[in-house]
Write the structure tokens for this entry.
Amino acid sequence: MAIPTLTFGQKLRYGAEAAVFFAFMALFRVIGLPLAAHLGGWIGRNIFSLLPPDRVARANLLAALPEKTDAERDAIRRTMWDNLGRVVAEYPHLEKFKATGDDPRITVSYPPGLVLEDLKGHALMFLSAHLANWEMLPILGEEMGVDGAAVVRPPNNPYVADWVARQRSINGPHTLIAKHNAARHMLSQLRGEKVLYMLVDQKLREGIAVPFFGREAPTTPAPAALALKFGARIIFAANRRLPGSRFHVTVLPPLEFSATGDDALDVPALTAAITRRIEEIIRADPGQWLWIHNRWLTPRDIALTQGTPP
């Protein structure tokens, strides 16, 4: 991923941020994966959890899972922070994550009647969320011989973004499509009857508002629009962290949807169906999901949508 032209001030700021980041990445690399994951988990539980995003996680959990007790929500939040710290610590070790070999760290299960060969040579979208270590699904697909491209949101820091892109390409797909400039590349991928890996659980301010945990959430219509345009199959995958920096990916049955032929109706309806499936996956194991994202409509969003002052 090419580093853009930067001003002197940007070089200083991004350089200082990157220096701290790379120091931690070097430490995680030197101490090895098991110890790095343990240290990352400790940092997540004891340091990340003290930062402002924890307030977002608390509010999101209370609004999304009001039926759970305070103790249950706190346990979910602690698991989330532990997982996030481990994800960060695992980036310098992505080459160790494989589904084959003497010590596979990724296992996979398919629904009855679906086999790997069914996934090759078709326009296909693998949809998931920020679950466990979300880098595992593209790595798994690449190792299994599926010709895929991952749609990603690069880190804001260009030096960090370049490093992360190179880490992702070690075992994962070499084609990474940045979300901010994705449309043409996504179209090309599906026209070639290839695969897109997409995480569809984040807020898109210009998206379609659909229900998510009982509240309206602005959601990208891109997967629905592309599926309807190209007849691409939509398949979901759930990822779960296991002890020892190991993961199990569960491939779910393809989403069935009967289109009416009217995109104005079909795109919102399919987007809502996709979001329902993502919610079901998260509800099955909420500690695996990243609850710190501002996923739902805020009062300011609603005011702007209605054309009234926020």
User: Anything to note?
Assistant: DSSP finds ten helices and nine strands in the chain.
